[in-house]
Specification:
Blueprint lengths: L1 E5 L3 H11 L6 E5 L3 H11 L2 E2 L3 H5 L5 E4 L6 H10 L4 E4 L6 H14 L3 E4 L6 H12 L5 E9 L6 H6 L3 H17 L3 E9 L4 H5 L5 E8 L4 E7 L7 E8 L3 E4 L25 H4 L1 H16 L8 H20 L3 E2 H5 L2
Parallel strand pairs: 1-2, 1-4, 2-3, 4-5, 5-6, 7-10
Antiparallel strand pairs: 7-11, 8-9, 8-13, 9-10, 11-12
Helix pairs in contact: 4-5, 5-12, 6-8, 8-12
């Protein structure tokens, strides 16, 4: 099949290499807002370069992947949908939940399949965690802990346009909690700190965040995020139930240093980025999209599911500002 990729920054250029290695992909068409970046990535992966997203949509592609800046997601996603092309879009659907609602409605009415990028759904250990919940082997859950700690902040320009840590980073944990537990979030309490590089506070963002999610069966989920974990990239999920407890992400690449005398775990080296920690998941995620394009499977992460995540992120943002818990039904009624 012939696919198009819009946006060739850090994740886009990584996807370009992954896509060209997939057996189902015969050719790849790429474009970026910066012509020099388009030429460099196209030359490096053997893709066809075009000058604009409009040219890409008219290039005879079977499906489109969007890895452009967040502010461009709604227009690009709808342009692909209007062209009748199956589309994969990196999270979030939009910076503002109202815009995400409008995009979701247009996409739903079109019938064009849309897949949103939440790679932990494709990571083997996160899938095992979901299976453990579904099997009942953990009993009933009382506590879930989800962690995303980045080694260093992204560039200042990215932070300024990201919509904030809850919409940019925490959404991965929110989606994981919902997907693994199969439960809905009913209440959110969020707090955090901007301590770190000045550009984070200048953008009105947080460098470190903590979110408490109450699920619809009274399970409590604790989410921890930070832009500053110089030892490495830390992604973990703990599930504590009435019968057993399990963890995903407790491997020898865990970026923690044990102080126990004689401890040999973790053996290292630590995971340095999401691209090495989740490499297998990213490949599986994009392979799944080729099946969506081929019509052999439904979207494994629909825009409707991503919209629910967006509502929770919006509740976290509001909670931070009003300094109290925010219920999802309260937020939706505003």
């Amino acid at each position: 099949m012939r696919l198009g990729l819009i946006g060739l920054g850090r994740i886009g250029s990584f996807h370009a290499r992954t896509l060209t290695d997939l057996p189902a992909v015969d050719s790849l068409v790429v474009t970026d807002a910066l012509p020099a970046v388009t030429a460099e990535v196209a030359g490096r992966v053997g893709a066809e370069a075009v000058d604009s997203s409009a040219e890409l949509l008219a290039a005879g592609v079977d499906g489109v992947l969007i890895a452009a800046a967040t502010k461009a997601h709604p227009a690009l996603l709808l342009a692909a949908v209007d062209a009748g092309l199956p589309v994969f879009c990196e999270k979030p659907v939009a910076r503002a939940v109202g815009d995400a609602v409008a995009v979701a409605e247009r996409a739903r009415d079109s019938g064009v399949p849309v897949q949103i990028g939440y790679p932990r759904r494709f990571d083997p250990v996160f899938r095992a965690a979901r299976a453990a919940v579904a099997s009942g082997e953990l009993g009933w859950l009382h506590t879930v802990r989800s962690t995303t700690l980045d080694p260093a902040p992204p560039p200042a320009a990215y932070v300024a346009g990201s919509g904030g840590i809850f919409r940019d980073c925490t959404v991965h944990d929110i989606d994981t909690v919902r997907w693994v537990t199969g439960r809905e979030v009913v209440e959110v309490y969020a707090t955090g700190s901007s301590r770190g590089d000045a550009f984070i506070a200048e953008a009105g963002d947080l460098a470190t965040a903590a979110v408490v999610l109450t699920l619809d069966d009274d399970t409590v989920a604790l989410v921890s995020n930070s832009r500053y974990n110089p030892r490495g990239y830390d992604v973990r999920l703990e599930l504590h139930g009435s019968a057993d407890s399990v963890v995903a992400g407790l491997d020898d690449g865990l970026p923690l240093r044990s102080l126990e005398p004689g401890a040999a775990f973790p053996a290292g080296p630590p995971h340095r980025s999401f691209m090495d920690r989740l490499a297998v998941a990213f490949r599986a995620e994009l392979a799944a999209f080729t099946e969506v394009v081929a019509g052999t499977r439904p979207s494994p992460c629909t825009i409707a599911e991503a919209l629910e995540v967006a509502w929770v992120a919006e509740a976290a943002t509001r909670s931070l500002h009003v300094h109290r818990p925010v219920r999802l039904d309260e937020l939706r009624s505003l």
